[in-house]
Structure formats: structure tokens, C-alpha cells
Amino acid sequence: MAAKKRDLKVIGRLEPINFPEWDLYGIDAKIDTGAYTSSLHCHHIKPVQKDEGEYVRFNLLDPSHETYNDKLFELPIHRKKVVKSSNGSREERFIVKTKVQLFDRLLTAELSLTDRSEMRYPVLVGRKLINGRFLVDVSQKYLSEKEIKEQT
């Protein structure tokens, strides 16, 4: 059952997002209702075969990002998806699952791994994650930070 509009948290066009399982906090995310799947900026994205199945190995962010720590991740591939990027090109991407925190909500997210170094924000939050949970006010940004300040 879909949540009623009054029950949905309002978020802005930009919000900080946390990845608690990866010890990564306060990463700027662009909220994009035009994108279905959320995506995450990574580099050195390589598939690896293990006894347990298909995995993907990658580094989060890149050396130019202030929170980059050169940590290598290896996660099960949830699925693969052909994605049409904003410039019209198509690429096959690996989709992984992890927990994300947006405002006070801990959610399971599917993230496509891609090089977003040419983009302003390292994380793009798509409709699949926000649908039924949040309303987007594109005239606002960083509403979660404003909410925290109001509570203190």
C-alpha cells in the first residue's frame, strides 16, 4: 500500500546520504526523479568470479574526493543492467545492494556502480529509492541538515 502524501518526508534536490555498512557518511547526493536506479561514483570496477558466485571489485569515489580512502570493496553482484546515461550512451552496469541512511531512515538500496567523475555529485538517488518514502521539493536542498539544526 502506498504511503499517504502527508506521511512522506520532504527532501530537497540535494541531500547528504550515509552508507553505514561502508563507514561512509555525509556524501552529497543529487535527488533525481528522472532516474529509476540510484548510482554511485566508483573507479576500478571489475567483475570477479568466486566460489560463491559473481562479485564486483571497486574503489568508492576517487582520489580527488575529500572522503576517498582507497579502500577496496568486493560485493556480490545483485544483477546487471544496461543503463542509458544522461548523454545518451548505453553501458552495462553492476548493481549492488547496501544499506543507506537518508534523513533518519535506514533503507536497502540498489546502486549501479559507475564512473561519475565528470558529474558534480558522487551519488544519484533515483525514483526506486524515493518512491513511496519521500516527496521531492526541487526548490530546496539539504533539508536533513536544516531538520537537525531545528532539533538542537
UniProtKB/TrEMBL annotation:
It comes from Fodinibius salipaludis. The lineage of its organism: Bacteria, Pseudomonadati, Balneolota, Balneolia, Balneolales. PANTHER family: ATP-DEPENDENT ZINC PROTEASE DOMAIN-CONTAINING PROTEIN-RELATED (PTHR38037:SF2), ZN_PROTEASE DOMAIN-CONTAINING PROTEIN (PTHR38037). This is Retropepsin-like aspartic endopeptidase domain-containing protein. Residues 10-147 form the Retropepsin-like aspartic endopeptidase domain. Gene3D superfamilies: Acid Proteases (2.40.70.10). InterPro entries: Asp_endopeptidase (IPR008503), Peptidase_aspartic_dom_sf (IPR021109).
